[in-house]
Design brief:
2 domains; Aldehyde Dehydrogenase, Chain A, domain 1; Aldehyde Dehydrogenase, Chain A, domain 2; four-stranded parallel sheet; alpha/beta; homodimer; globular
Amino acid sequence: MSADLAQLVTSIAQRARAASLVLATIPTARKDAALLRLAELIPADSTELLAANARDLADAEANGLAKHQIERLSLSPAKLEHLAESVRQVAALPDPVGTTLEDWTRPNGLRIRKRRVPIGVIGIIYEARPNVTIDCAILCLKSGNAAILRGGKEIFHTNTAFAALITRALAETGLPADSVQLIPTTDRAALNTLLKLDTLVHCIIPRGGESLIRFVAQNSTIPVIKHYTGVCFVYVDKAADLAMAENILLNAKTQRPGVCNAAEQLLMHADIAAQALPRLAAALVAKGVQLRCDPASAAILQKVPLAHAAAAAADFTAEFLDLVLAVRVVPDLETAVATINRDSSGHTEAIVTEDSAAAAAFQLAVDSAVVSWNASTRFNDGFEFGFGAEIGISTDRLHARGPMGLNELCTYKYVIDGSGQVRT
Amino acid sequence: MSADLAQLVTSIAQRARAASLVLATIPTARKDAALLRLAELIPADSTELLAANARDLADAEANGLAKHQIERLSLSPAKLEHLAESVRQVAALPDPVGTTLEDWTRPNGLRIRKRRVPIGVIGIIYEARPNVTIDCAILCLKSGNAAILRGGKEIFHTNTAFAALITRALAETGLPADSVQLIPTTDRAALNTLLKLDTLVHCIIPRGGESLIRFVAQNSTIPVIKHYTGVCFVYVDKAADLAMAENILLNAKTQRPGVCNAAEQLLMHADIAAQALPRLAAALVAKGVQLRCDPASAAILQKVPLAHAAAAAADFTAEFLDLVLAVRVVPDLETAVATINRDSSGHTEAIVTEDSAAAAAFQLAVDSAVVSWNASTRFNDGFEFGFGAEIGISTDRLHARGPMGLNELCTYKYVIDGSGQVRT
């Protein structure tokens, strides 16, 4: 049984590798044709898709999943139409493959071009969102990569129905049917096999909770691009415009508190804390935010008085993903930077200041993927960057950092043109 | 004891992380000053360095190492002068850090800049070459990275002496002394600890034999950039200029057979095999190359007659690193491409042809880091590319592929300038 499973996964990877070599050379128009066919098939096949989804929803209910969890699993005709539209949008994006990134000629006459090419075979490990199968498949396809998808068991029937539709769109438009394959089991042993196939699979992208990502990172011999969530900081400098600071803080904390680029902590410059913190805190509390304060900020809010709690040590490195904000007072910009570089997750940080030298010092020294000056942390996002799509937001440093769009799903190769040169 | 070792390595990594945050913001002139001081210290301290090296050489002799292995370990005043010169050369290279890679403004007015920054902390695991400690230290330093070095036991005393010298150069020029640290033991347990410190160390580069690289790749939870050796192919097309093909083949196979970008296999187009192979084979045999032939090429050489051996199956995927060349006849370019994509290691391949369409098809479809047209495979090299230095030749696809110079030792971050923008 386990040997069968290993053989099955290996065979999937071998076929993905073969498909990837074909995909890497296929012109843009043929990839787009497959995407547009898929966009047609999604609403056309809505009955089957919704029936498969209904099976997952019934299982979820039987297994006692919470209402908001079940809601996350569910499809609807409107959601399918939205999904089809996102497929058309990816088809309309420029093809990243084949772009010349650099082009130079050596003194010996060799012309060297650095050319963007697909990574090859990408394994995507994800959990229970029904749109991920389509999202990942289309981004991999557009960027010329073969995809091996391994979704969560809660959404297995839905994923299987989507995968069948993708295979149909590929076959109908003459692309390799193995370009996108779903592992037809959620058995952990299959995942373990996949994570060791480093001669066939070139990159693993885990999408989901921290424990899934950690499991993948610890068990994979294939390079992993991790998408951990964020502990993002907003530093309000002594030279901040307070109206702007309030606006940015409210947006960063409350617009969508459950996402990775939401703010989790406020650092307040001591010189203006007594004046500014009551105003900022009042605005946050009015939006339902619970403040977890260090002694200095607590002392200020106590005087006002304004609702707040004493922070525990763990709050200063916590990702709340909720209407909770840790608050600390710092004596200067240097301490703000050092605090961030020690306690943040390196995802996204913001400084609010009218002092351009302070902003430049902050942007130089803060070691995070995105460092914003006078803008919400929420802009660390592929769409907001203008990438047109994103497969996630990388918290790694190698290969891709921050929003990962189509370009980041590619690598490069060097193409050298000579006239008989040899090395001496 | 083992707990002490783990604590020691963890402390090294923590100090490296702290040093990396300082290094990332240090101006070019200060990094160069440290490098130039090191270049002075190497010849000035030659007595101590050669004494340390003599201890390693004595151990090597006592342990019965072969003469060529001992030769690889040995330093001399001339080698030290050469090493000092390489340090001066790296100091003279442009600083990769801080370069703006992209710069655009979004419709909402946000200006986004993609800026090259150091990776952070890089762990380099290597074996017995005495120059690697200096080479890796200076490339990491120039690119603003902190380095943790773990060398082989055969060269331990030499490495320790070099590391002391680097620390002195750093201290004398006011750079963090922890910017470059040597793990002061070759105990495997220390390496195992290092490979799991993924919150402190951002990248591992193993340099050495395949078994070392494999061990590191399988045991590291830190991203690894692998530098496997190469199984490189030369394909002689039916439209090849035979004089050029002979020149390129001889260079690729015999100029330095023990390196990763040397050719290991010849694919010969069937249409010209009967005419061309005897000539090419005679030139190779005259240079002492042993040919391991498939039946088709053997049949041709039998008629000439010319010395050759029948290839075993393993020869067609072998890295000989010696004056041995596998030879096969292929019916067409498509088969050449498919053979390479199946049997090569994806390092470097070359086509020899006067047909530009054939060259373009080959360069499009061959899935290797470097694909050359009418040039020797030996050009896959950081110096030959004009990078001025290289830390190795990556056989990975993510982050760096092919020659890795200073730019490839960097990642990027996004710096956003706003005027109060929030997400709606």
